[in-house]
Amino acid sequence: TDDAVTLVDTVSYTGLKKGKTYTLKGKLMNQKTGEALLDADGKEITSEKKFTPKTAEGSTEVEFDFDASKLAGCDVTVFEYCYLDDTLITSHEDINDQDQTVHFPSIGTTAKDSTTDTNISKADGKISIVDTVKYTNLKVGKKYKVTGNGLVKKPVEPTPGEKHADGLSDVKDADGNEVTAETTFVAKESNGSVKVTFTFDGSKLAGKTVVAFEEIHQNGKLYASHADINDEGQT
Q: 233 — phi, psi (to 5°)?
């Protein structure tokens, strides 16, 4: 769910006339609602491409470039329409076609101290914080890696005329090492949860507020992240 995503729709066709110029017009649909997907300005997300087939059968690609930053947990299906001049000659509008659908995973986390089972922890020499990561829209049977790191939320002096702001720094143990954690799992269902445990020397964290950030990767590629410094569930 980046702010700049490109989806490539490969359109296969049969029965077209070689040498004629056709126009493909595509739009993105929200599979769960069955309605057109809208961008940040409230406009439908569409794409258009002209092509001239050299044979009656073949394929071509249509690209959609859009802001997907608000699509966590969403299923997006592509509809395509083929025109000759201004006449619609064929279309593909199956909202349940999985080959036409792209899934955007989402994650949310809840962090608790393993001893108190709350979000309050004692600044001991050994602390274990268990972060429960809930996910949606992962592919069943695939192996994923969850990586997490801790950040200290601290007040910083605001510039004149601005409200108070929060600053961040990496959580470090007593030896000065950054506090991180990771776990791997195989998704048994598309929606579920997995636990990530941070164990470290927290003896120097008295009076501090720590927030856990999490990411889900597959084969080195980032699929979802949760990095909200103001999320109390992660704190």
A: -65, -25
User: In this structure, are residues 128 and 198 in contact, taking their beta carbons and an 8 Å threshold?
Assistant: yes
The pTM (predicted TM-score) of the whole model is 0.79
Rounded Cα distance between 123 and 201, Å, is 8
Specify whether the CB–CB gap between 57 and 75 falls below 8 A. no
**pLDDT tens for each residue of the chain, 235 residues long:** 888 999 999 999 999 999 999 999 999 999 999 999 988 778 899 999 999 999 999 999 999 999 998 899 999 999 999 999 999 999 999 999 999 999 999 999 999 999 999 999 999 999 999 999 999 999 999 999 999 998 888 655 555 555 444 556 788 888 888 889 999 999 999 999 999 999 999 998 898 899 999 999 999 999 999 988 889 999 9
Of residues 74, 228, 212, the one with CA closest to residue 146: 212
In sequence order, which residues have a C-beta less than 8 Å from that of residue 47 and are 6 or more positions away? 9, 25, 26, 27, 62, 63, 64, 65
Q: What is the distance between the alpha carbons of residues 12 and 10, in angstroms, rounded to a whole number?
A: 6
Residue 120 token pair: 């309050």
Which of 173, 230, 175, 223 is CA-nearest to residue 202?
173
Of 174, 122, 184, 124, which is closest to residue 148 (Cα–Cα)? Answer: 184
Which tokens belong to 181?
A: 């954690």
CA separation for the pair 134, 192 (Å, rounded):
6
CB 146 within 8 A of CB 216: yes
